[in-house]
Amino acid sequence: MDVVQLQRQLVDYKASLYNEAILDEQFTQLQELQDENNPDFVVEVVSLFFEDSERLLNELTKALIGAQRVQKVCIAFRNCCEEQNVQGCLICLQQVKNEYSLVKTKLETMFKLEQQILAAGGSIPV
Q1: For residue range 87-126, what is the model confidence (pLDDT) as tens digits?
Q2: What are the respective helix, strand and coil percentages of the chain, to the nearest 5?
Q3: CATH class for domain 41-119?
Q4: 25 near 32, Cβ under 8 Å?
Q5: How far is CA 62 from CA 33, 37, 57, 76, 82, in A?
Q6: What span is annotated as the signal peptide, if there is one (predicted)?
Q7: φ, ψ for residue 2 (rounded to 5)?
Q8: Positive/negative CA dihedral, 94, 99, 101, 102
Q9: Residue 20 burial by CB count (10 A; 0-12/13-18/19+): exposed, middle or buried?
Q10: Domain boundaries, the chain
């Protein structure tokens, strides 16, 4: 392929990433920070993102309190980071947010029920 074809392919591919909501305006802003003095800036920042994400996911997975569904999604997220799979990371990130929100809501409800039982003079069944 010649340079013009490769450039067209890159433009089309980037457009598809925006159309699929894999990338957004924040990535555009990141690209605008790149210049001829640091032509690998975006690649370096994205690589750091994957490294930091993997580390944070490892920490989160270790710190989980028995929230099995959150743990499974964190493991999948970590795997996507290791593979540098951007689309997979974005999907897993949304799943982590969803599962975290779900387990938080469910546990808050459980704790409220426990408080009501105690306030009514009962004991928490095991």
Answers
A1: 898 899 899 888 888 888 888 998 999 999 999 998 988 7
A2: 75, 0, 20
A3: mainly alpha
A4: no
A5: 35, 40, 8, 14, 17
A6: none
A7: -85, 170
A8: positive
A9: exposed
A10: 1-32, 41-119
